[in-house]
Amino acid sequence: MKKYINKTVEFRLVSDEIIKGILIDYSDDWTFIHYNPVDYVLDGYVLIRNSQIDSYRISNSRIENEIFKIKKDTLFIPISLKGNFFDFFCVNKLVISIETSDRSFIIGKITAIDERGIDFQLLNSKGKWLKERRIQYKKINKIEFNNDYINSLLLVTSSQDL
């Protein structure tokens, strides 16, 4: 996988979902991409649990790779898989989206971490903070952050609540 870092990769997940993006980093457990939902658009970041990846293929589009190479040179990559990225999300109070093992999506922020999981304060689709929910690490399949949907939602969420 190391030879594909900074390349555009299309992943087929066990759920048959296709996710495409620039491969930023990978570890034994996670793959980290800059998400490419369509054409030459980059919209946030996605962490995919490796057990959820069925297969992958590398993009051979010269123009796509050229555009993303130019874009990549202007981007700041916010995290590394070398440390505990859950700590990074918690300390920085980042709002993230989590896909759980039952295929549900929830949005919110991590409020506490321990060896088995996270406490996660939910944010609804109207920008209102809800109750906290406990999530075990093993139940987290995918994490998305810094995308247009989340950033748009934050526009109507009180900054004092973050």
Helices and strands in order:
Layout: E1 8-13, E2 18-26, E3 30-35, E4 45-49, E5 53-58, H1 62-72, H2 85-91, E6 95-100, E7 105-113, E8 117-123, E9 129-136, E10 140-145, H3 148-154
Antiparallel strand pairs: 1-2, 1-5, 2-3, 3-4, 4-10, 6-7, 6-10, 7-8, 8-9
Please name the defining characteristics of this protein.
162 residues; alpha+beta; SH3 type barrels; 2 domains; 10-stranded antiparallel β-sheet; 3 helices; globular
In short:
The chain is α+β, with helices and mostly antiparallel strands and 162 residues long. It is built from three helices and ten strands; from the N terminus they run E-E-E-E-E-H-H-E-E-E-E-E-H.
What features would you describe in this structure?
By secondary structure, the protein is α+β, with helices and mostly antiparallel strands. The protein contains three helices and ten strands; from the N terminus they run βββββααβββββα. The N and C termini lie far apart (36 Å). The chain has two domains: 2-72, SH3 type barrels; 85-161, SH3 type barrels. The protein has a ten-stranded antiparallel beta sheet.
Mean pLDDT over the full residue set = 90
Q: How many structural units, i.e. domains?
A: 2
CATH third-level topology of the largest domain? SH3 type barrels
Strand content: 35-45%
Q: What separation lies between the terminal Cα atoms?
A: 36 Å
Residues in helix, %:
10-25%
Helix vs. strand class: alpha+beta
Shape: globular
Name the CATH architecture of the largest domain. Roll
Adjacency order of strands in the biggest sheet: 5-1-2-3-4-10-6-7-8-9
CATH structural class of the largest domain = Mainly Beta
- Compute the number of strand runs: 10
User: What's the order of the H and E elements?
Assistant: EEEEEHHEEEEEH
Q: What's the alpha carbon Rg, rounded to whole Å?
A: 16 Å
Largest sheet: 10 strands, antiparallel
